[in-house]
């Protein structure tokens, strides 16, 4: 079995080849090689290969294979993580990865809350 760093190197090389090629046969060959690799969530996060492969979902010859790969990789992404509060109650929290960003609505809401808190503090 190849080490994780070997797989990362291969995936990075395949990603570069995918972005540099327009040949349908090459795209299909690379997607097939990716299918044969043991790719983990950490490798997906580190390399960004999921985004590169997802771009080929409408490719004439490789589209179905690209969709299949992405569907399989989505199963690797954790949906939720559990956290224990001070009183011992277990609650679910969303897992935050480097790709997840708060929506603009959430950012505005947070800014309004901070501003209101400052105003209330100034009134005291």
UniProtKB/TrEMBL annotation:
<dbReference type="InterPro" id="IPR035441">
    <property type="entry name" value="TFIIS/LEDGF_dom_sf"/>
</dbReference>
<dbReference type="InterPro" id="IPR017923">
    <property type="entry name" value="TFIIS_N"/>
</dbReference>
<feature type="domain" description="TFIIS N-terminal">
    <location>
        <begin position="6"/>
        <end position="80"/>
    </location>
</feature>
<dbReference type="GO" id="GO:0005634">
    <property type="term" value="C:nucleus"/>
</dbReference>
<protein>
    <recommendedName>
        <fullName>TFIIS N-terminal domain-containing protein</fullName>
    </recommendedName>
</protein>
<feature type="region of interest" description="Disordered">
    <location>
        <begin position="80"/>
        <end position="124"/>
    </location>
</feature>
<dbReference type="InterPro" id="IPR003617">
    <property type="entry name" value="TFIIS/CRSP70_N_sub"/>
</dbReference>
<keyword id="KW-0539">Nucleus</keyword>
<dbReference type="InterPro" id="IPR051870">
    <property type="entry name" value="Elongin-A_domain"/>
</dbReference>
<dbReference type="Pfam" id="PF08711">
    <property type="entry name" value="Med26"/>
</dbReference>
